[in-house]
Amino acid sequence: MDARLQELLDKQAIGEVIQRYCRTLDWLDDAGQASCYWPDAAIEYGFFSGKAEDFLPVVMATERSLARRWHMLSQPLIRFHSAVSASSECYGIFGGGRMQEDGSIAGDLIGGRYLDEWEKRSGETGDEWRISARAYVLDWKSPLTDQPMFEPDPAFPLPTYRIDASGHPAYRAL
Questions:
Q1: Would you give the DSSP letter of residue 5?
Q2: CA 100 to CA 70: how far, in whole Å?
């Protein structure tokens, strides 16, 4: 196969892992989140430093403590070092909120960067790209107050899901 075509396929595969990372956090999909990292991946988030297999229970417990969560990452800039290793950087925005004592939801909108190392290894579905090291850098944080509740607002009647456990009925395998 032409090397340029293989690089495009590999970039697409890495981009899909990044999207899966966001989606599986937001839907509380533990297995899907685990599929984004090699278990021995080095993770550095400030509040956690260690291996991915130890990070996953911590991050999923953190996500479950939120009344809602929303992750969005930009298209990554990817540079290949070989056919089986790469580096990437992408920007991310995260919004989340916790239930407050007064019954409202409040939290933060956070912006930062994901500095990732990637390896293509033999996995459950053949050769696959996963994160082999990740460092997160916080760039900014802003409060998010007065978030919508879980019932549609009559003045702005858009549906709002309450996702507080894995297995939400609207979650689809993609």
A1: H
A2: 18
- In this model, does residue 124 exceed pLDDT 80? no
Q: What is the pTM of this model?
A: 0.91
Please, how many CA atoms are within 13 Å of residue 44, restricted to the half-sphere of its CB? 11
The CATH T-level fold of domain 3-144 is Nuclear Transport Factor 2; Chain: A, (3.10.450)
What confidence tier does 20 reach under pLDDT thresholds 50, 70, 90?
very high
**Triad 61, 72, 159: Cα angle to 5°:** 80
Q: Taking the domains of the chain in order of start, what are their residue ranges?
A: 3-144
Nearest to 47 by CA among 142, 117, 112, 130: 112
Nearest to 33 by CA among 46, 18, 51: 18
